[in-house]
Design a protein that fits this description.
Length: 234
C-alpha cells in the first residue's frame, strides 16, 4: 500500500497524462472529462451480438443463464479500454469519477423495471482484492445502487482464482467453462428474485454467465448484467 508521501513521490516519478488530449496532469483533464461522452453501444444480445434488444436472444437463451446485458461504452474504444486498464490493473482510482460520469450520462439505457431488482457484483477472488485494495465490480455496484436508488448486497464469492481477462483473450474460452467458480456468499441468507449483476467489462460473457448460473441454481428468477464496457464478439 502506498500512501501519503510515497504516493506523491510516485506521482512525481510517473506523471499522469490525460487519456484524451494527452496533456500532463490528470488521467482525464477537467476539460476532457466534461466534454467527452463515450459512444453508447447498440442494444444487442450479450452472447451472439444480434442487435435489437439487450435481452439474450431466443437461440442463445438455451444453455445460458444471463437474461440480458446493459453496457455503457464500447471496450474497442482505446480511451475506454485504457481508462479501465488504469483502474483495474494499475489500481489508479483517480479514473473512477470519469467512469461514474459515463454511466450517469447514459442512465436511461437501463430499461428493466428496477423496483424489483437488487444490485450485486461479480466478485474478484479475495486474494486479488487484498492485492489491489478494492474490487472494481463492487465499487461499480455501489455507484449503481446510489444512482438508481436500488438496494446493494454482496451475494457471491469467488471460490477459484482465474487469470485476468486481458491475459486470457487469446486463449480459447467458451460460455460454460467457468462453471463452479462462484458460490453464494455465506452471509446471503435470503436471495432476492431479481438481480442486477455488475462487472467492469464483458467480453465472452463466460464469467458473468457463470455468476448468473450460480444465482439461478440457488433460485433467483431473473439476472441482468450491467457493465461499463462490452468487448463485442471475441
Ligand atoms: Zn484532456
Ligand atoms: Zn444471441
Amino acid at each position: 500500500m502506498v500512501g501519503g508521501f510515497g504516493k506523491m513521490a510516485i506521482d512525481a516519478l510517473f506523471p499522469r497524462f490525460c487519456l484524451s488530449c494527452k496533456r500532463e496532469g490528470q488521467i482525464f483533464c477537467l476539460a476532457c472529462a466534461s466534454n467527452w461522452i463515450a459512444q453508447s453501444e447498440p442494444f444487442a444480445c450479450p452472447f451472439c451480438g444480434i442487435r435489437g434488444s439487450a435481452r439474450a436472444c431466443l437461440s442463445c437463451r438455451e444453455g445460458t443463464y444471463l437474461d440480458g446485458l446493459v453496457s455503457y461504452a464500447p471496450y474497442g474504444n482505446p480511451i475506454v479500454r485504457e481508462a479501465i486498464g488504469h483502474w483495474k490493473y494499475d489500481g489508479d482510482r483517480s479514473v473512477e469519477s470519469t467512469l461514474r460520469q459515463w454511466i450517469e450520462q447514459s442512465r436511461d439505457r437501463l430499461h428493466i423495471p428496477l423496483e424489483n431488482f437488487v444490485v450485486t457484483h461479480v466478485p474478484i477472488h479475495a486474494s486479488r482484492k487484498r492485492m489491489r485494495g478494492f474490487d472494481q465490480a463492487e465499487v461499480l455496484s455501489g455507484w449503481v445502487g446510489e444512482m438508481f436508488e436500488m438496494p446493494v448486497e454482496t451475494l457471491l464469492v469467488r471460490s477459484h482464482k482465474t487469470k485476468p481477462q486481458a491475459k486470457m483473450q487469446h486463449e480459447k474460452r467458451r460460455v460454460g467453462t467457468l462453471d463452479g467458480i462462484f458460490e453464494i456468499h455465506p452471509n446471503a441468507l435470503e436471495l432476492p428474485t431479481h438481480i442486477l449483476l455488475c462487472d467492469d467489462v464483458f467480453t465472452s460473457g463466460a464469467t458473468m454467465d457463470a455468476a448468473a448460473k450460480c444465482l439461478k441454481d440457488a433460485g433467483v428468477e431473473e439476472v441482468w448484467g450491467l457493465v461499463v464496457a462490452r468487448g463485442g464478439k471475441d
